[in-house]
Design a protein that fits this description.
Blueprint (H helix, E strand, L loop, with lengths): L6 E2 L4 E2 L5 H10 L1 H21 L10 H4 E5 L5 H11 L3 E7 L6 H9 L5 E7 L2 H5 L1 H14 L6 E4 L13 H18 L4 E8 L3 H8 L10 E4 L17 H14 L7 E3 L23 H18 L4 E4 L10 E2 L5 E2 L1 H13 L3 E8 L2 E8 L2 E8 L3 E4 L4 E4 L5 E2 L3 E4 L4 E5 L2
Parallel strand pairs: 3-4, 3-10, 4-5, 5-6, 6-7, 7-8, 8-9, 9-10
Antiparallel strand pairs: 1-2, 11-12, 13-14, 14-15, 15-20, 16-19, 17-18, 17-20
Length: about 425
């Protein structure tokens, strides 16, 4: 990654571009594409809004729905142990194109995960965006070296942020088409997903899904963060997390350029008092218990949509936003146990229904022919612990209290026959 782009090793993202003259010049060059984005959104978003109520849910494979992001260069020995402790079967790994000299290191790492489903997020730099021959050369090496070790390749990431290297959707379309053409020529079994728009900025997504470029996605990726809204149930422009997923799923369904697969490949909340590792300001950060609650509720709402094929939490080991703090030693945040419990109870679950009444949420699942309900409430309340209940806390501890406290922390209630 060359200047003016600089990588922040603490929060695992590029620093904001400080060269305002450079940004102004590049934005001016990107104006034709930005106009296309505007008109695509002007047409597609209203149509998608009208069509949203008519989109049918899919049957989601719960085993592969739960995915965790891992860094192959950060605590690699501990990572394998921790992934196995979680029991999870789907991982997402990020590869930086400006670190192609580490490809053999990545291959060695992935060999230990041959029994897992692997999504590889290929992260761009400006050099590979501008020089598509270089990108094709690098991609050829990646596809060749990692053949048989990667199930899904996510081409590009965070495409609507200039600090990540793209200044327009047309640039991304050319970038993805380079990967698509190479795949068709030499690697027909490679599954390519893309778009990679961050946050609720679907005007960019509309341009990636409805354009004249001759390529097709095997699925759509989204970095659907909602951390700046506070709780996962909060709305933005009237859209809750569930609404955002429904609208995005509708756009995917309407697009002729993609298979009907939708992947959330990055999301989290930043953690209090972890600067400079937190990726945002302290204002957006939450405490560790709140982080665990929000993570679980994000997964539950996404699973209830039955429109998202997988959600990848970003990520396993990261002091400022992950499940593990590795600054001095390996320290598990409360969310690690929360994730472990979530996967234990839900990885074989069949979703039945979601009921919401005055801020009280009940999700119902069928788990090995046993009814499981998950309860939480935006305002604390109580629920009688019936004789036919078997109740567990967010982190898997059995609860035998006569009256159950229902609040921010989801409670698992198995209904005994």
């Amino acid at each position: 990654m060359n200047k003016p782009y600089i990588w922040d090793k603490y929060s695992d993202q590029p620093y904001p571009l400080k060269d305002k003259t450079y940004k102004k010049i590049m934005r001016k060059r990107a104006l034709p594409s930005l106009l296309k984005t505007f008109f695509a959104a002007l047409i597609i978003l209203p149509i998608s809004l009208v069509a949203t109520p008519f989109i049918k849910r899919k049957k989601i494979d719960s085993k592969n729905f739960f995915c965790i992001g891992i860094d192959y260069q950060r605590e690699p020995k501990h990572t394998l142990e921790l992934v196995n402790e979680l029991g999870i079967q789907h991982i997402l790994v990020r590869l930086k194109l400006w670190e192609m000299d580490s490809i053999d290191e990545l291959k060695k790492f992935l060999l230990a995960y041959k029994d897992k489903k692997v999504t590889l997020k290929i992260m761009q730099d400006r050099e590979n965006v501008v020089d598509l021959k270089l990108f094709k050369k690098n991609l050829n090496v990646i596809f060749t070296k990692l053949n048989g070790l990667v199930d899904i390749y996510e081409i590009g990431s965070t495409i609507n942020r200039a600090k990540w290297g793209f200044f327009s959707i047309d640039e991304y379309n050319n970038f993805f088409k380079t990967a698509y053409d190479l795949r068709n020529q030499s690697f027909p079994n490679a599954q390519l997903i893309g778009s990679g728009v961050i946050d609720f900025e679907y005007h960019f997504t509309a341009h990636t899904l409805f354009n004249k470029f001759k390529y097709k996605y095997d699925g759509i990726s989204s970095l659907l963060y909602v951390d700046r809204r506070g709780v996962p149930e909060n709305t933005q422009l009237g859209f809750s997390l569930s609404d955002k997923i429904a609208l995005l799923s509708t756009m995917v369904w309407l697009s002729p350029k993609t298979n009907q697969n939708l992947y959330i490949t990055e999301t989290n909340w930043p953690i209090q008092n972890t600067a400079p590792y937190a990726p945002t300001s302290e204002k957006e950060c939450v405490d560790l218990q709140t982080y665990a609650d929000y993570m679980l509720r994000y997964y539950l709402l996404s699973f209830a949509s039955q429109q998202v094929d997988s959600v990848s939490w970003h990520q396993l080991i990261a002091p400022g936003y992950g499940l593990i703090d590795n600054r001095d030693s390996i320290k598990k945040y409360p969310a690690f146990q929360t994730y472990k419990t979530m996967y234990k109870y839900l990885h074989n679950a069949q979703f039945l229904r979601l009921d919401i009444k005055r801020g009280y949420y009940i999700l119902q699942f069928l788990v090995k022919n046993i009814l499981l309900q998950v309860h939480w409430a935006l305002k604390p309340t109580t629920l009688k612990n019936e004789d036919f209940f078997e109740v567990y806390s967010r982190d898997g501890d059995i609860i035998t209290d006569e009256n159950l406290k229902i609040g921010s922390s989801p409670t698992y209630i198995f209904i005994k026959n």
